[in-house]
Structure formats: C-alpha cells, structure tokens
Design brief:
Elements lengths: L16 E4 L7 E5 L6 E7 L4 E6 L7 E6 L5 E6 L4 E4 L4 E9 L5 E8 L2
Parallel strand pairs: 1-3
Antiparallel strand pairs: 2-9, 3-8, 4-7, 4-9, 5-6, 5-8
Length: 115
C-alpha cells in the first residue's frame, strides 16, 4: 500500500458543440471554449461510401479527429489534425468528432469530401 498526496483540478465542462457538415460542401468551423469540450459535426452517409476528412491545424495543441458511425462506434481516427479517409459501413447519420487533448481549446475548420 502506498501513501502520498495528489492535487486534483475540477473543470465545469460545457456541452459539446454541434453542427452539420455536407460531403463536398464548404468547410465548417468547430470551436471549443472549455476544457474537456468536444465538437461534433453530423452528416448523411451511404453504405460503402468513402469519405475524406480534412481538419485544419488551427486549433492549438493536439487533438483526435474521428468518424463515428450511427451506432456510436468509431470507424476511423487520426491524431493531430491530419487528413484521413474512411469507408462508411452502413447508411445513416455519421458524426465527425473533434476531441482536443488535455487543456486545449480553440477553433478548427473541417472539410468533408468523397473521392
């Protein structure tokens, strides 16, 4: 058994920001204002459709950007704002999740295309 001390910091995390994005449409900006807050952009996808997510690198620090399928499972993720692609397994409403790491907050634009 160990002994010692620890310092904890609690944050009042605001609700995730939400919006929508269209495949082949204009870039959409995701802004987080509180530590622990994520951004979520939804889009309609078809089974077998390939999409490419292009996040900007304007959000300070590092973050995860993921494509989440309608049942909540992640089908693709990338760390540190790099472009990545995913093939959508089913038709439905998908989510691009922007998850800033640590104490990071800020804005990032996201573009969604289908080759």
């Amino acid at each position: 058994m160990g002994t010692g001390s620890i310092t904890l910091t609690l944050f009042d995390v605001p609700p995730d920001t939400t919006g929508s994005i269209a495949i082949g449409g204009p870039a959409v900006t995701v802004t987080t204002t509180g530590v622990g807050q994520n951004g979520r952009l939804t889009f309609q996808g078809s089974a077998g459709q390939q999409v490419t997510v292009r996040p900007s690198t304007s959000m300070p620090g590092l973050n995860w950007t993921s494509v989440v399928q309608p049942d909540g499972g992640k089908i693709a993720s990338h760390y540190n704002s790099n472009q990545f692609s995913a093939t959508l397994p089913v038709a439905g409403i998908y989510t691009i999740l922007v998850d800033p790491e640590g104490l990071n907050v800020g804005s990032m634009s996201v573009t969604l295309t289908s080759p």
